[in-house]
Every structure is written in structure tokens, then in C-alpha cells.
Amino acid sequence: MFSRVLVGFDGSPRGRGALALAAALAGRDGEVIVCTVQHPRTASSRVDPSAPRLDLGSAQRSVEQGQAFLREQQTLSHPLVIEALDVAPALLDAASFHRADLLVLGACHRGRVGQAMLGSVAAAILHDPPCPVAVALAACEEVLTVPKIASIAVGCDAIEQPGPELDLAVRLAGELAAALHIVMIADTRVALAVEYGGAIAYPAVVKARRLAAEEGLAKVMAALPTGLSATGEVREGNPSEKLGEVSRGVDLLVLGAHHYGPVDRLMGRSVSAAVRRHARCPLLVTPLGGGG
What is the DSSP letter of 30? Predict the structure, then answer.
């Protein structure tokens, strides 16, 4: 579990989901810092009605609402209101300053504008976070209690060695007595790209990817702690789509922030960023060095 969790909360329904996820991952012994970003009144905000307008009074009320919810869940919390134009840098700085070992964000699948705004914040935070980042993707108005995390999945790349994401998933599964499901991805998009290049036949590349995934999964499964309830599987195809499918059957999906496949390196995209569009459960994303 995490000992000091910083959660970004703006008083909205999706923020309630972030609070619940923060409480679940902090546990009984952890503490949650409820952080609301107050937007200073600028010339642009007076002209543009769509500009953020969370004034000091609204920010303070949001923090109080967040703390009231956490008190109901018997979770220790602290208030934090900061003034900033940009939410992402403000939350990153706050997480670093307060030495948080987890940063939690809220999300919602409703509305293109809301998704775009949240997507830009999440993308900026996941680019180089100081600690693991959790994103609450569940519908939020119904969130009244802390969710029970009984099943955890972790996505691993068949080409790269499993890193902090696997270590974190194993630790959380042990502490929460949750079932762990390890998904080794054989990214066959690479095989298709190679075929277009004419270097190697498509079936041969797919077979090699599949074999690498099976061997990698066997090594991971053999190294797991005894007594841990764990299963594993290999999936072929687009990593973000396959992990999105996995997310439909678990309570938490763990990924690496810099989890790049060869095609993603060329195209400048992160698998973890794409998974946010497909996922149907909360995400927990680790930075390259593990964070914390």
C-alpha cells in the first residue's frame, strides 16, 4: 500500500472516484493529501468563458468536501490549496514537495471537451511523474465507498524486461490479498511493419514474438513469491487494445509509464497513454525508475 497519497480533487463527480481510489490504495495506515488547484483570475479568464474559474472559495469548499468523504471512509487526510494556471505542473510539484509516493487523478468517459482537458493533464503528468500515478476511470456519481481491489492485472512487454510495474503489482497483490493476472503482450503490429519493409516474412516475425512472450511469461511466473494467487497469459496484437480488453475483468490495471513498443518508439506514442482510451477499470502507472 502507499503511505502518502496526493489526490487532485476539483469537487466534480469524477473527482469523487479519485478520492475513493486514493483511499483504497492508502489503506488504513496511509494518509491522503486532498489537493485542489485554484486558478488565478487573469485577463484571458475574464474574456474566455470556457477558461477555468475555480476561485479560492470554491477551491476551499472542494477540499472540505474531499476531506468529509475521506472521513466517512475512515481515511486520514490533509488539505492543500495551491494557485496555478496549469494543473499538471502544479500537481507534479506538489507531489514532489510533499514526498507523495502516489498521485491520483480522476477521469470520465463523458463529453469530448472533458476528455480532452483531462487527457492533456494526464498526458503531461504521465510524461515524467515523480511517483506512480493512479487514474480513476470508473463512472463517478455512484462512487460512495472505497472500492475493493480483489483482482489486479499487469501488462508486460514481450520485448522488454518487466520492470517496476511488475514489482508494484506483485507487492500490491500480496498486501491486498488480491488475485494477480500477468499479461505478456506480443505486439504483432511490429511484424506487419517489418513485412512492409520486406526484411522478414510476417509469419516468422509473429512466431518469434509469440515465442518471446511465452518464454518471458514462464520466467516471470517462476519467479513469483510463493503463496501468491497468480495466473498468466500471452496476448497477440495491439497492446492498448489487448490491455483494454483485460481491464474489463479486473479491479486495477498496472502499467509502466514508459512502456514503449518498437512501433510506439517510431511514432512517439506511449502504450499507457493509449490504454487510457480503452480501459474500463482504474489504472496504476509506474514511472521508468519506479518512483516513490
Answer: -
- Residue 292 DSSP symbol: -
What cell was used for 185?
503482450
Closest to 107 measured CA to CA, from 255, 281, 248, 242 = 281
The one-letter amino acid code at 160 reads E
Say which amino acid occupies 251: D
Q: How far apart are alpha carbons 23 and 29 in whole angstroms?
A: 10
Cell of 251: 479491479
Cβ partners under 8 Å of residue 270, min gap 6: 126, 257, 258, 259, 260, 264
User: How many helices (H) and strands (E) in the chain?
Assistant: 11, 10
Tally of CB atoms within 10 A around 95: 26
Question: How far, CA to CA in Å, does 159 sit from each of 40, 184, 187, 259?
Answer: 46, 10, 9, 11
Dist. CA 47–CA 42, nearest whole Å:
9
Domains and CATH numbers, the chain: 4-136 (3.40.50.620), 151-286 (3.40.50.12370)
Is residue 228 within 8 Å of 170, Cβ to Cβ? yes
Residue 179 pairs in a beta bridge with 151
- pTM for the full predicted model: 0.84
* Separation of first and last alpha carbons in the chain: 12
Nearest Cα residue to 165 out of 186, 185, 189, 150: 185
The residue type of 270 is S
* Cβ(74)–Cβ(68) below 8 Å: no
Rounded Cα gap, residues 5 and 122, in angstroms: 17
What 3-state DSSP class applies to 106? strand
- pLDDT tens-digit series, residues 45-95: 444 454 446 788 889 999 999 999 999 989 999 999 999 988 899 999 999
Q: Which three cell numbers stand for residue 250?
A: 479486473
Q: Considering only CA atoms, which of 118, 160, 141 is closest in space to residue 283?
A: 118
The separation between CA 84 and the C-alpha centre of its own chain, rounded to angstroms, equals 23
